[in-house]
Structures are given as C-alpha cells and as structure tokens.
Amino acid sequence: MVSDEEAMALVLNRLRRAQGQLAGVVAMIEAGRDCKDVVTQLAAVSKALDRAGFKIVATGMRQCLTGAIPEGTQPMTEAELEKLFLALA
C-alpha cells in the first residue's frame, strides 16, 4: 500500500526506533527496574508504533485522494481505509 519512498523511510525509522525501545524495555524488566520507568518506556514504544501505523494509513489515504495508486493495485475503499484507521485506535 505504501509506495511513497519518503513516507516509507519515515515509517521504517519509527519502527527501528520502536524496536530499540522495546529491546530496552525487555532489558529493564530483566534487570528488575522500577515499574514506573518500565511503563514510561513501554508507552514510548506504543506511541512510536502508533505513529508508524498512522503514517501508513495517511499515505494510503493520500494515494486514494490523488489517484496516485501504484500500478497493478486496486485503490482502497473508504471502508477499508476506515477499518485500517480504527485498527490503530
């Protein structure tokens, strides 16, 4: 669905950041760190994942609005876009 190279680069950066943050959360739990610190970092991971998902949905919406659908693919319906968006809510 995402063909915009710039948007994909942003998504990948966010996902890599979240991956690193998640590894940090695991290490914090293994080290017996304070619950408050663990939850704070876990919230940061969740936010990074949400932003990556929203960027993907926004890119799909922009493609539908501008008609810039990648060749060989079908445009997403309004219902499909809504379902994707609500999956992140």
Automatic annotation (TrEMBL):
<dbReference type="GO" id="GO:0003677">
    <property type="term" value="F:DNA binding"/>
</dbReference>
<keyword id="KW-0186">Copper</keyword>
<dbReference type="InterPro" id="IPR003735">
    <property type="entry name" value="Metal_Tscrpt_repr"/>
</dbReference>
<protein>
    <submittedName>
        <fullName>Transposase</fullName>
    </submittedName>
</protein>
<dbReference type="GO" id="GO:0046872">
    <property type="term" value="F:metal ion binding"/>
</dbReference>
<keyword id="KW-0678">Repressor</keyword>
<dbReference type="InterPro" id="IPR038390">
    <property type="entry name" value="Metal_Tscrpt_repr_sf"/>
</dbReference>
<dbReference type="GO" id="GO:0045892">
    <property type="term" value="P:negative regulation of DNA-templated transcription"/>
</dbReference>
<dbReference type="Pfam" id="PF02583">
    <property type="entry name" value="Trns_repr_metal"/>
</dbReference>
<comment type="similarity">
    <text>Belongs to the CsoR family.</text>
</comment>
<keyword id="KW-0238">DNA-binding</keyword>
